[in-house]
Structure formats: C-alpha cells, structure tokens
C-alpha cells in the first residue's frame, strides 16, 4: 500500500481489494479477521473496519455478532434498455420487477441559457424542476432530475406525485407518447445526495445519463439527468423502438 495515500484512498483500496477477491472467488463465504486483512493490505484495523463498513452499506457484506463478517449473495445487475422508448416502468415489468417512483423535490425555476437551449424555450421561461427516485422491488436504482415547460405541462408535478410514473404523468397532461432523441453517458463517483437516496457507499460509481425526450412533432418534452448505480444496473443501448 502506498504510504503517500491519504486515509480515504487507503480504505477505498482495501474495499476494492476485498470486492475483487469476492468476485474472483478468493473469498467465498466468510471474510478473514480484521487482523489478517490489516496485515494483507498493510494498513491498520481502523482502515479495514472502514472498508468493511462501506461494503456492508452496499449490501455485499453482513456482520454476525460473535461469528464474524460474511459475504452476501451478489445481486445480479438489472438490465435497463435505452432506445427510442426509454420507459422505466415497462423495462422493470418485463423483468417481473415491481416499479415505483418517488418524488424527492420539486420547484418552479426560470430557464437559463443552457436549459432554454435544451427545451427550445426562451431564457427566463418558467420550468418545473423535479427530482425523483426510481425503485424496483423495493431497491433504489437511480436518481433523476427532470425539467419540463411549466406553460406546456402545468400539472406535471402533481401528476407524477399521484402516479409515480413520468409516462402516466405526461398522459394526464395530454401527451399520449414521446420518444428519446439522444442520450449522453458519463461516469463519476457518487455524490453525497446519491449516497443518501440510493443507500450506496461513498465511493460507489454512478452512470450519469443526460437525455432529451421529444414528442411526435420533434418538440422537446423533457430534459432529464439520471444517475444509475453501476453495481445495480446494466445499461443496454438499442435502436429498437
């Protein structure tokens, strides 16, 4: 272990080492003792405990009083197709998973230059900014922030709060169908807000999708930024409708 690393880097490297050992089968059921891990990675026991706590918060490990720390079954990543129709509820139901959406926060804002360009509206136009959580089988999978024209969709917030579905909320606002125009994907470390709402470790990786949805006349419907937990989701890009 590099002595120049700070404490955070060390526990993250220990956590990554344990995670890799589990995925490669080097650790099967029960973790070695804290002392053994500290010796293996050249760190103190406090660093090992912090790494184990992070992996436990991810659901990878569990502590049993008087017995030690054990490996949980690694959950299979949920497949999420991204094509011309990106529909969370439909995607989950195809995999026999019960979907739901939760409203985190909503506010009325005025469009800045970048937002006006995305939604083809005037700078200063009123927008609904909605932050929401996507859940399947009780597990939080992604956190999104959507922007809608408040003039075109005045009741979108209340409609989403009632239905838990963007598609159903737009239907209530008079839009029968829409499609994905483009999706741009990057990756980064989880933010403090991700950790809070997605119940993940601080060093988790999130896949960040920035997308625009349009109606049948090619008019923008929503700008949406979605943060998917990489260890829970597998994004599949397809040209299929």
How would you portray this structure in words?
It comes from Rhizobium skierniewicense. This protein has 241 residues and is of the alpha+beta class. The protein has 2 domains: 3-71, Orthogonal Bundle (Arc Repressor Mutant, subunit A); 78-237, Chorismate lyase-like (Chorismate lyase, 3-Layer(aba) Sandwich). The protein has 8 helices and 10 strands. Strands 4-5-6-9-8-7 form a 6-stranded antiparallel beta sheet. A hairpin with a 2-residue loop joins strand 5 (126-136) and strand 6. Helix 6 (156-163) packs across helix 7. The termini are far apart. The mean pLDDT is 87.
Keyword list:
Arc Repressor Mutant, subunit A, WH-like_DNA-bd_sf, elongated, 31% helix
Strand order of the largest sheet: 4-5-6-9-8-7
Report, as a whole number of angstroms, the end-to-end distance.
Answer: 49 Å
Average of per-residue pLDDT values: 87
Instruction: Give the biggest beta sheet.
Output: 6 strands, antiparallel
The CATH class of the largest domain turns out to be Alpha Beta
Percentage of β-strand residues? 25-35%
Please bin the fraction of helical residues: 25-40%
Task: Briefly say what this structure is.
The chain has 2 domains: 3-71, Winged helix-like DNA-binding domain superfamily/Winged helix DNA-binding domain (Arc Repressor Mutant, subunit A, Orthogonal Bundle); 78-237, 3-Layer(aba) Sandwich (Chorismate lyase), CATH 3.40.1410. It is 31% helix and 34% strand. It has helices spanning 7-23, 34-41, 45-57, 88-94, 113-119, 156-163, 166-172, 192-198; strands spanning 61-64, 68-71, 78-82, 99-110, 126-136, 139-149, 179-189, 205-214, 220-229, 233-237.
């Amino acid at each position: 272990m590099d002595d120049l690393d700070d404490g955070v880097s060390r526990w993250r490297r220990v956590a990554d080492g344990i995670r890799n050992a589990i995925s490669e089968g080097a650790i099967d059921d029960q973790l070695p003792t804290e002392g053994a891990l500290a010796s293996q990675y050249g760190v103190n026991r406090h660093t090992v405990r912090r790494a184990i706590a992070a992996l436990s918060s991810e659901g990878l490990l569990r502590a049993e009083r008087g017995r030690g720390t054990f490996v949980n079954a690694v959950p299979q990543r949920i497949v999420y197709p991204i094509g011309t129709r990106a529909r969370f509820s439909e995607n989950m139901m195809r995999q026999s998973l019960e979907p739901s959406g939760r409203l985190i926060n909503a506010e009325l804002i005025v469009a800045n230059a970048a937002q006006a360009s995305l939604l083809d509206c005037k700078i200063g136009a009123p927008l609904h900014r909605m932050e929401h959580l996507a859940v399947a089988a009780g597990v939080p999978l992604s956190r999104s922030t959507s922007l809608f024209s408040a003039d075109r969709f005045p009741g979108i917030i209340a409609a989403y709060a009632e239905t838990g579905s963007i598609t159903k909320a737009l239907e209530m606002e008079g839009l029968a169908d829409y499609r994905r125009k483009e999706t741009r994907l990057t990756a980064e470390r989880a933010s403090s807000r991700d950790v809070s709402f997605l119940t993940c470790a601080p060093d988790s990786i999130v896949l960040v999708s920035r997308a625009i949805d349009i109606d049948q006349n090619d008019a923008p419907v929503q700008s949406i930024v979605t943060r998917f937990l990489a260890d829970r989701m597998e994004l599949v890009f397809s040209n299929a409708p």
